[in-house]
Specification:
By secondary structure, this protein is an alpha/beta fold. It has a single domain, classed as Rossmann fold (3-Layer(aba) Sandwich). The strands form 2 sheets. It has a 5-stranded parallel β-sheet with strand order 1-7-6-2-3, with helices on both faces. A two-stranded antiparallel sheet has the order 4-5. The radius of gyration is 18 Å and the shape is globular. The two termini are about 25 Å apart. Bound molecules: zinc ion.
């Protein structure tokens, strides 16, 4: 495993620049997409070449899940990802397509202990057209992991992303309202119907958590695949009185 330094916070800029240079000499940072050395502030671990190879999502896209549409649209379109979903939430937004470079970032964050990527991935989200406005003033609710999976992985990638978003964007608040009460089978090999079934009764409100019916909640996850996980989380919040629910993800696909 590559040793990486990660430094952020309130160091004065001059000292911070010097500290970064010193750490770069000791532990050179290579972009996990391009493989090139990183030296493009404010990005911590991504080069411009790596960033340019991401497929960023911009309009037109599905209002429910954020999936990009290609070409000129004559009117409202039904996204094939959402046609069977019956979403409990109103709108969804995503930053990149989960193929190629986008998939690589999710994979490193999730399966390669890439916690150091969360800040840059949050910056990608905030620089995606329309995403900062979509998030503005919302309360971010990370999709929880079951304690067994959390113990195995050591962190929850959805929590890392919302914490990094809140650190970069002070208007955002984070509320860990949900708990995963059933250790569900991994979703990756399941079809759409099986995923929805797999999520039944998987989530609950955390003990002591309170839902504010006036708040606008955005349930957040790393990837939108079928929407079954995000929809199950939103259903719990809706049952507990939430009236304004949206979903956000880093990647789609
Ligand atoms: Zn959709």
């Amino acid at each position: 495993m590559t040793l990486r330094w990660h430094c952020e916070g309130d160091l004065v800029p001059v000292f911070r620049r010097g500290a970064f240079r010193m750490l770069d000499l000791l532990f050179p940072r290579d972009c996990p997409i391009s493989g090139e050395p990183v030296d493009n502030v404010p990005w911590l671990h991504l080069t411009n070449t790596g960033l340019d190879s991401l497929h960023r999502v911009s309009a037109p896209h599905c209002e429910t899940c954020g999936a990009p549409f290609f070409g000129v649209l004559a009117g409202p379109q039904t996204c094939p990802h959402c046609c069977d979903l019956s979403p409990v939430f109103d709108r969804g937004k995503t930053a990149v397509v989960a193929k190629g470079a986008g998939r690589r970032l999710v994979h490193v964050l999730k399966y390669r202990q890439g916690t150091w990527l969360a800040r840059d991935m949050a910056r990608i989200i905030l620089t995606t057209p329309g995403y900062a406005d979509f998030l503005d003033g919302a309360v971010l609710v990370p999709v929880p992991l079951h304690p067994h999976k959390l113990h195995f992985r050591g962190y929850n990638q959805a929590e890392l992303l919302v914490d990094a978003l809140a650190a970069l964007s002070p208007s955002l608040r984070v509320a860990r309202l949900l708990a995963r009460i059933r250790d569900t089978a991994t979703q990756t090999r399941l079809g759409r119907e099986d995923r929805a079934h797999n999520m039944e009764n998987a989530f609950a409100l955390r003990p002591g958590a309170v839902v504010d019916p006036e708040a606008r909640y955005i349930v957040f996850d790393d990837v939108f695949t079928t929407g079954a996980t995000l929809n199950a989380c939103c259903a719990v919040l809706a049952r507990e009185g939430a009236t304004r629910l949206d979903v956000g993800t880093f990647a789609h696909g």
